[in-house]
Amino acid sequence: MPRGRPELYPVKKVIGFDQSMLAAIDHWRRQQTPIPTVSDAIRALVELGLAAKPSAAPAETAHASKLARKKMRGRRS
């Protein structure tokens, strides 16, 4: 029988970030009042992204563009 209060977020996921993504998350969270934890900021940003209306043609983000360029350079080697 479980004891104590139930977990608010029982499902855990391990994901990776590069430094530029972490810097962007940190920049966003420091503009919020009160400043959320990194985990709460990531959850909020995911919720914002999921709630956003999709455009007719998905816009390529700067981060996605950077990753695509890295992959292309790796294939040319």
Overview of the structural elements:
53% of the residues lie in helices and 0% in strands. It has 77 residues and is mainly α. It is extended.
Structural class: mainly alpha
Give the overall shape: extended
Strand content: under 5%
Q: Major sheet, described briefly?
A: none
Number of strands: 0
**What is the radius of gyration computed over CA atoms, rounded to a whole number of angstroms?**
17 Å
Order of helices and strands: HHH
Enumerate how many helices there are, as a single number: 3
What separation lies between the terminal Cα atoms?
Answer: 57 Å
Helix content: 40-55%
Question: What does the secondary structure layout of this molecule look like, with pairings?
Answer:
Layout: H1 19-30, H2 38-51, H3 62-76
